[in-house]
């Protein structure tokens, strides 16, 4: 079994702070992933609809629409491909984590997220996707 799937992961970084978004995008690009960035919820939904990502790294405190609302809409607008949605946020209370789970967010990380944690997480998603490709969705579930 290959460690990484044939194609890189498609990652959508949703972050309103430009320097943070660029830093995360640079890190993930250097790790071999294809990265797109959106600075608000509306842009994130538009980008995800045009080209559904494998993974969404989602800030919760976005202008205009919370990351929780973005996650809910991502889940309903999907045309079959469901991304792994990871909150990367300063909102770190137990209530925040529950709200993330209720919104369909798969994992909740508190800022500042450790770069090694992010790259390890994406490597794990890579391996899971490769395993599903090799065994088929029914066997990998």
TrEMBL record:
Keyword Transcription (UniProt): yes
SUPFAM superfamilies for this protein: CheY-like (SSF52172)
Keywords of this entry: DNA-binding, Phosphoprotein, Transcription, Transcription regulation, Two-component regulatory system
Domain annotation Response regulatory: ranges: 10-126
Pfam families registered for this protein in UniProt: Response_reg (PF00072)
CDD domains, A to Z: REC_2_DhkD-like
Cross-referenced SMART domains: REC (SM00448)
Superkingdom classification of source: Bacteria
Modified residues (4-aspartylphosphate): 59
InterPro entries xrefs: CheY-like_superfamily, Sig_transdc_resp-reg_receiver, WalR-like
Alphabetized PANTHER family for the sequence: REGULATOR OF RPOS (PTHR48111), TWO-COMPONENT RESPONSE REGULATOR ORR33 (PTHR48111:SF1)
Name of the protein in its database record: Response regulator
Source organism of this protein record: Gemmata palustris
Lineage start: Bacteria, Pseudomonadati, Planctomycetota, Planctomycetia, Gemmatales
């Amino acid at each position: 079994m290959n460690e990484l799937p044939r194609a890189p992961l498609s990652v959508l970084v949703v972050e309103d702070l430009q320097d943070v978004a660029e830093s995360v995008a640079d890190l993930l690009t250097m790790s071999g992933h294809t990265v797109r960035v959106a600075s608000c919820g509306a842009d994130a939904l538009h980008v995800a609809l045009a080209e559904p990502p494998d993974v969404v790294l989602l800030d919760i405190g976005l202008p205009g629409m919370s990351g929780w609302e973005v996650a809910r809409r991502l889940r309903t607008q999907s045309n079959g491909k469901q991304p792994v949605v990871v909150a990367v946020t300063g909102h770190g209370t137990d209530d925040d984590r529950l709200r993330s789970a209720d919104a369909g967010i798969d994992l909740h990380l508190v800022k500042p997220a450790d770069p090694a944690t992010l790259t390890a997480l994406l490597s794990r998603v890579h391996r899971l996707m490769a395993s599903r490709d090799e065994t088929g969705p029914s066997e990998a579930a």
